[in-house]
Design brief:
heterodimer, A: globular, B: Ubiquitin-like (UB roll), 6-stranded mixed beta sheet, 21% helix, 20% strand
Chain lengths: 387, 444
């Protein structure tokens, strides 16, 4: 590491304001702080000691928490593919098939998003913000496997620029960036984002296996079947293990639970938000259980579609959630309620999680306002009594 | 029976190098210096010239806006220099100490028989009034105000802070006399760790983690400051100064300082006067093998100083920690970093128990970001105030909102622990100071 440190110190001047490579200053800074904890010390006045935590570590932990979903998602992509073409899905074959299918999406999402982040950081003379490390991993996990790469690129660019950078970057955005990407895809290219033909990979990967699936494979998700009023073919057990069609990272409750465990143990995600999403969702599903098809129990709503994934990784986004802890209960609860209400009462959209979270992102400041205003009123009343 | 208030929010930061309970005298300094910056909110007007001969208790400078508030020399001697910086700002007034100390005689007085005005006048003349702080704005008190209370916290729970119970030993009479004098001016509230026999004051027991010992936290829980109200605060050791003044008629600004920190060879207590040279206080007690940061005060709220600097007026400890600017720690975002302390469970320090001592350096350990994580400040802010919203109002310069959110009740030091835990590394204390200064200017 000493050699690397020396190398960085040697080339650092070229990246500074008057150096030859100053156009890449933000890239160099990003790389340097990624390799080494900044040696910068506290100013003369103020706190001289600081907690070892920083936003890089927090974001890294979320990315690590997403790994079980990613790895399982890769396996499931291959599994669904082999199942659809009538072959027995073998473990490693399925996994490598999925790996090759998913990897380009991750690369595209990171290259486009981080590219914009680096450019903006350079332009604003700021450090690179780590928020996109998480968004960039979430984006491939919440799209159907058949989403074309160019669509992911366009949607990611739209979300990073218009949902984040125009507001001032990570920490200032109102909407969850990954969900804006998905919403952009959902409303701009509905045919590639929903329906029965988007969930099984059937195109550019097939040459690897020497098998050609001429037509798109039709495979309905449990939510698609529910929306159509058909009996759900997947059992409760399938929806928990996750070997069902769906967006890449959202199908396995077990993988999501592993991620949730890490997020909760490390305290990175708020248990208050997470718990209340499940409570809100369960309660609503229970109250509307008459509207569900015969072989589908109310609690199965929590295991299908993006409910778990949204509750664990999206609703708990600290920036777009309320800032005060009591508001988090209301926020989470209403996400659960709205998601299930959209699923059950709106014939247009089989899944409601994305819209529920985006809607509550809008309301989060209002919930905070109510909590903070109560404190303000209390103080005003105290002052009035004294007079 | 004293009222007991238990506070849940807060954080105990266990730094290595706590002062052992043994006390020695500091090396006597040749030159003592009074630093006007240590008296927050004061515009200094120097009233001595180089070469003037002063006694301990003679004014060196006064407040331009309130010339009756004097700031007096801790020692007798000859004024050696009035050091000025940019735009002729007074940085320090240095006095070369006599071998034989002479004191201004303020007259030994029996506090019980004095009137409030007489007490205040004696405090103003002796310069001790300059040690009073006020809320709102956390600045040096204005003698024209009529405070609704005077608050004293005897709890020192900042990392490496002095243990006031130890400092108090043998000075109980002076402390009580000081409280009696304060009680002449306004009702006195004393915050203590364990029930303590203090007369003429409302005693409240506070139990909790840092910053429970902050007087601001205690005010918030006993008699919060509303808009238009003023309270005064005085450091516990400064109450002893007041007691000494009335008991002896002399100004004696001798403190029992904790000299502590991982870079101090033998952490202990040292008796020294306000304005003493830092180098004489730490003497040869600082480790030489690494680059050391000397702090006038504790590592959360203090001021970085050098050996040639002078002890600040309100300072109760001098600490030394490693600077750490050559640490070159690789892959901080993923390594276990077992030696690091963190409230975050992404590190394992929460498994090692609260007794383990940590050696922390002065690195910020991350880049400054917008506020990302929520609830971080709130978990270490034991006041009925929303710290994050208040800080955001200050950043936005929204005066009405600052008032509504309770800026009159806070001081920068109340945000010190929040600044420590902040993963976005925002300089909260600087922001709060700027907010307070802005409001003070607006309301003037």
């Amino acid at each position: 590491m000493k050699a690397l440190r020396n190398l960085l110190d040697k080339i650092k001047p070229s990246f500074q304001e008057d150096g030859k490579l100053h156009a890449f200053r933000s890239v160099f800074d990003g790389f340097e702080t990624f390799m080494f904890v900044p040696n910068e010390t506290a100013k003369a006045r103020g706190a001289h000691i600081h907690d070892a935590i920083d936003s890089k570590r927090i974001m890294s932990f979320v990315v690590i928490a997403l790994m079980p979903c990613l790895l399982f998602g890769m396996y499931n992509v291959g599994y669904q593919h082999y199942l659809a073409i009538g072959e027995t899905p073998e473990f490693w074959a399925s996994f490598f098939y999925g790996l090759l299918a998913v990897l380009p999406k991750i690369v595209v999402s990171y290259v486009v998003g981080l590219g914009i982040e680096f450019t903006v950081a350079q332009w604003k003379h700021e450090e690179i913000q780590e928020g996109f490390l998480v968004s960039g991993m979430l984006i491939p996990l919440i799209v159907p496997i058949n989403t074309p790469l160019w669509m992911i690129a366009v949607a990611t660019a739209f979300a990073v620029i218009f949902a984040k950078e125009v507001f001032g970057g990570t920490g200032m955005n109102i909407f969850n960036v990954a969900l804006v990407t998905r919403a952009f895809l959902f409303f701009s290219y509905p045919s590639t984002m929903s329906g029965d033909k988007v969930w099984v990979n059937q195109n550019y990967m097939d040459c690897i296996n020497g098998v050609t699936t001429v037509d798109a494979v039709s495979q309905a998700t449990p939510l698609g079947q529910l929306a159509a009023g058909e009996p759900v073919s997947a059992s409760f057990c399938d929806t928990v293990t996750g070997l069902i069609p769906g967006s890449i990272g959202e199908t396995s409750v077990i993988a999501i639970a592993l991620g949730a465990l890490l997020l909760l143990c490390s305290g990175v995600a708020s248990w208050k938000t997470m718990l209340s999403v499940f409570v809100g969702g369960a309660l609503t599903a229970f109250l509307f259980k008459d509207k569900v098809v015969d072989n589908f129990e109310w609690y199965e709503h929590l295991t299908v579609g993006g409910f778990c994934f949204g509750a664990v990784f999206m609703a708990t986004d600290p920036v777009t959630s309320p800032r005060t802890s009591s508001a988090k209960y209301v926020y989470g609860f209403l996400i659960g309620v709205v998601a299930i209400v959209i699923r059950m009462l709106n014939p247009g959209y089989p899944e409601g999680m994305m819209l529920a979270i985006l809607l509550m992102n809008v309301f989060a400041p209002l919930f905070d306002y109510c909590v903070v205003q109560a404190n303000i009123n209390k103080r005003a009343k105290r002052a009035a009594v004294k007079k | 029976m004293a009222n007991v208030i238990k506070l849940k929010k807060g954080l105990t930061i266990n730094l290595a190098g706590r002062a052992a309970t043994e006390v020695s005298a500091a090396r006597s300094s040749k030159v003592y210096g009074l630093v006007p910056d240590a008296f927050c909110g004061v515009k200094p007007k120097v009233v001595v010239k180089e070469g003037d001969v002063v006694k301990a208790g003679d004014a060196l400078f006064v407040d331009k806006l309130h010339p009756e508030v004097k700031f007096t020399s801790p020692v007798s001697g000859t004024v050696k220099a009035v050091v000025r910086g940019d735009r002729r700002k007074v940085l320090s007034i240095q006095v070369e100490a006599d071998a034989q100390q002479q004191f201004v005689d303020f007259g030994k007085k029996e506090v019980g028989k004095l009137k409030a005005e007489e007490v205040k006048q004696t405090l103003l003349d002796s310069g001790l009034f300059g040690y009073f702080l006020q809320r709102p704005y956390a600045v040096t008190a204005n003698p024209e105000d009529c405070p609704k209370g005077i608050f004293v916290s005897t709890i020192q729970d900042m990392p490496l802070a002095q243990d006031f119970d130890y400092v108090l030993r043998g000075q109980e009479q002076d402390f009580q006399c000081g409280i009696d004098a304060l009680a002449k001016l306004a009702p006195v509230y004393v915050g203590v760790k364990a029930p303590m026999d203090v007369k003429n004051a409302t005693v409240t027991v506070f139990q909790g983690k840092c910053p429970t010992g902050n007087v601001g936290v205690q005010i918030n829980h006993t008699n919060p400051v509303n808009k238009g109200e003023v309270v005064w605060t005085l450091g516990a050791e400064e109450v002893i100064f007041v007691g000494r003044l009335f008991n002896t008629g002399k100004l004696c600004l001798e403190r029992t300082l904790a000299v502590a920190g991982s870079e101090i060879v033998a952490p202990k207590y040292v008796k020294a006067l306000v304005g003493a040279r830092i180098g004489d206080i730490v003497a040869d007690n600082v480790k030489k093998d690494v680059k050391v940061r000397l702090i006038d005060g504790n590592p959360l709220t203090g001021l970085k100083v050098c050996e040639e600097c002078f002890l600040g007026a309100h300072t109760t400890e001098v600490t030394a920690i490693p600077e750490g600017d050559t640490a070159d720690e690789a892959f901080g975002w993923i390594m276990p970093r077992l030696k690091e302390f963190s409230v975050s469970h992404t590190y394992l320090s929460w498994l090692f128990g609260s007794k383990k001592e940590y050696k922390m350096d002065a690195r910020i350990k991350g880049g400054e970001r917008h506020m990302i994580m929520s609830g971080e400040y709130d978990s270490v802010f034991p006041m009925d105030i929303y710290p994050e919203q208040l800080v955001k109002a200050i950043i936005a310069g929204d005066i009405d909102r600052m008032e509504a959110l309770g800026i009159y009740e806070v001081a920068p030091e109340d945000f010190a622990v929040a600044e420590f835990v902040d993963s976005s590394k925002v300089e909260l204390q600087r922001i709060v100071r700027e907010g307070l200064d802005l409001l003070r200017k607006e309301n003037a």
